[in-house]
């Protein structure tokens, strides 16, 4: 498996292609949102925190749409578990991608955990699964914002992201954290 490497704002993101529950393949570099693609990586059906997090994302979809942002939630669960999450969690309007392979997750700088049994939701964790990540990608395929975590809790709130988008779009605020080589950085 590839080593964990960070993504940098203003640089092209790696390829990401997943099947969706609505049919077809979602590809990050084939997207053409007005302003951003919001990619939300979730742990999977076994995660009770993901349930609430994705429900909140679904509630924010109209506000994101007004700001030219399309959203997708992706896990490495298979189709059956992704479908069960959609049904059990009542995610009827949120685009759900499934089958994220772990090598691609690593290229996106995501952390991988080992399953340790049944969760408080009463669902068995997979042997390996991806930890949360949130990415805003510009229509040109470059990274604008990323939040990658090693734990399921303390994730960015979608209401805060919506507010930030208002400022970002009004001021054409540049992506930050873009300095890759400190030897070339201005002193």
Molecular structure report:
The protein contains four helices and nine strands. The chain has 187 residues and is of the alpha+beta class. It has one domain: Glutaredoxin (3-Layer(aba) Sandwich), CATH 3.40.30. The strands form two sheets. Strands 2-1-5-4-3-8-9 form a seven-stranded mixed beta sheet, with helices on one face.
Furnish the topology, listing elements before pairings.
Layout: E1 17-20, E2 25-27, E3 36-41, H1 48-66, E4 69-74, H2 79-88, E5 96-98, H3 102-107, E6 112-114, E7 128-130, E8 133-137, E9 143-148, H4 158-171
Parallel strand pairs: 3-4, 4-5
Antiparallel strand pairs: 1-2, 1-5, 3-8, 6-7, 8-9
Summarize the structure.
This protein is an alpha+beta fold and 187 residues long. 26% of the residues lie in helices and 21% in strands.
Number of helices: 4
Write out the CATH superfamily name.
Answer: Glutaredoxin
CATH-defined architecture: 3-Layer(aba) Sandwich
SSE arrangement, N to C? EEEHEHEHEEEEH
Q: Roughly what percent helix?
A: 25-40%
Number of domains: 1
The helix-and-strand class reads alpha+beta
**CA-to-CA gap between the ends?**
37 Å
CATH topology: Glutaredoxin
Q: What gyration radius follows from the Cα positions, in whole Å? A: 16 Å
Task: Record keyword descriptors for this entry.
187 residues; 4 helices; alpha+beta; Glutaredoxin; single chain; seven-stranded mixed sheet; two-stranded antiparallel ribbon; 21% strand
């Amino acid at each position: 498996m590839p080593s964990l490497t960070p993504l940098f704002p203003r640089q092209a993101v790696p390829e990401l292609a997943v099947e969706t529950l609505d049919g077809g393949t979602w590809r990050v570099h084939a997207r053409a949102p007005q302003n951003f693609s919001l990619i939300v990586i979730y742990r999977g059906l076994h995660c009770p925190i993901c349930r609430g997090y994705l429900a909140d994302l679904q509630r924010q979809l109209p506000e994101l749409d007004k700001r030219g942002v399309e959203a997708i939630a992706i896990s490495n669960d298979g189709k059956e578990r992704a479908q069960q999450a959609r049904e059990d969690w009542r995610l009827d309007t949120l685009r759900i991608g499934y089958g994220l392979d772990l090598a691609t997750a690593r290229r996106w700088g995501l952390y991988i955990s080992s399953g340790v049994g049944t969760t408080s939701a009463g669902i068995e964790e997979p042997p390996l699964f991806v930890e949360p990540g949130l990415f805003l990608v510009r229509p040109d395929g470059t990274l604008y914002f990323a939040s990658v975590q090693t734990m399921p809790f303390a994730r960015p709130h979608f209401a805060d992201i919506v507010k930030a988008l208002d400022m970002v779009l009004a001021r054409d605020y540049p992506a930050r954290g873009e300095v890759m080589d400190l030897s070339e950085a201005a002193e």
